Amino acid sequence: MAAPLALIGFPLLVALILLTVKSGAARSIVVIAASVLLAAGTLSLVFTHYPLTEARFHVSPALTRWALLGLELALSAFVFAIGVRRRRLLVSLLALLQAGLSAVTGLLFEAGAGVEHALSADKFSIIMAVIVGVVGSLIAVYSPGYMEAYHRHHGELGDRRRLFFFLQFLFLSAMFGILFSNSLPLLHLFWEVTTLCSFLLIGYDGTEQSRGKAFLALVLNMLGGLAFSGAILYLSATSGPLELDGLARLEGLGGFGALTRSGVILPVVMLAFAGMTKSAQMPFSSWLLGAMAAPTPVSALLHSSTMVKAGVYLIVRLAPVLQGSLPGVMIALIGGVTFLLASLIAISQSDAKRVLAYSTVANLGLIVMCGGIGTYESVWAAILLIIFHAITKALLFLSVGTIEQRTGSRDIEDMSGLIVSMPKLSIMVQIGIAGMFLAPFGMLVSKWAVLRALVDFNPLLAVFVVFGSSATLFFWVKWMGKLLEVTKAHQNLERGIEAKQWASLGALAALTLAICGFYPLVSTLLIEPYVIDIYGTIRTMSPGNILIMSIMLGLVALFPLTFFVYGRRVKVVDPYLGGGNVDSSFSFQGAAGEVKSMRMSNYYLGKAFGERTLSTAGLIACAALVLVSFGVAL
Question: Can you give the pTM of this predicted structure?
Fold first, then answer.
């Protein structure tokens, strides 16, 4: 019990300390020291708990019952007050409903009183804890330097960095709470803490725009929180299991027919609904896109290691119950539609953070799709996706944040020639992009696993992956091409980037390469044992395919390795411009004797893949699927 409590309590203690630290230098020291200890602590779980046998921890039911009720009501009261202060009637109403459900469940049905093991640690929760601890810590190390530069560029904003770093570590504490909670009421408490933290972080700037985006995130996530509360109330009233491991495992449930008779499938769908709102599935994806208004470390934290991963974590936990059920198929379709449409919309975006946001929504859709199917193959693929996506997306978000601070723009078209102006950072972005779509990097391996699981389950569902993956190829290649394109002279812009930021970016780039090279080991030691525990069987890649992909990874790695070995000497070759080059390599004399400058730009196909049209279609389609999933679960 010591390890889970330590991982929950340590970031909380750090958060409280940071709330009192006024000096920027002292704050940076605390953040770095705490991040190193946190990352080391989570990594130690793998070595101290291997072979990762499940451990359950007893906590006094009476104590947790009243403590949880008090904290739930306090959170609801805080949100209610925010709604009243900002004249957001819907927020206050949702807070009242949340408080009512918590009070009824806690007082009338004594929710949590029958929970024997409030905390637990198993293979899946330890995998997720390592992701949160390592990636979250690297984002925290990156943050002090970024936030100092952020306030230099935005002098009009109030300096609330103490609150920022308090919320950042409180967020990490709540995430560990979600991962190690076996009691559904306790898990719900941490779930609501992440919702509140995301609201405050997204609205950090204090502008009308950031507040609007923050309230959108709050409302949509509160809808999921209400569904979560409803599931706990339902299970409490029907004497259903309130321990996550008892609810999520197959033993004693006997298939979909038995689930319907016992009344378990409805609360499972309600919990999955909460997971879909948290993981920004259509029709709820707008809150995650709005989160781009926040500083870059917030975007990285929400998109990679926390918040959205809590949603897919819960859905993958419930995958064995959803397997073979009609509600499970509806949830899989929601994920599939989200993956396809978000990937298509990303083609039309030139803002790098919006491309990353839609890519996140899309990949979360793929994970939700796997969870809805619920087979052992799809769960294995889903966990692989979670691991690869967390590392790669953190690298890309932090890299874009640095580019924006150095160039004043995050438009992909303005990243032309980055290989010359910011060579090391360009290599890191290219590693991140390659990690998202290029063979043999992890995301492609994961999509191969998803495709295989879909073909075995229902080949028609593979259509979503085939067409969605084609779209991802299109927008990632466009971006990579811009980085390598040189159409004018560039000055070096990398001077002045802090060592802490380089350390975070370099570590994430190295992790992206390492996790791709050693993913068979990660699968064998961490993922496969969990899948075997739940399903009793597993299927992975053949040794021949692993060897081929390892060779490919070695060949791909030659590019960045060669660059760093031979230094920054990028040779720019004069292009042939259809006429005589004049003055420089970037101008030419046309047929009429007029001097013209070379200019290149990407296709964004806004009419074919317009954001408004496809978002509306996704909203309608997925809202209908949500209603159907509840309808068939009743």
Answer: 0.91
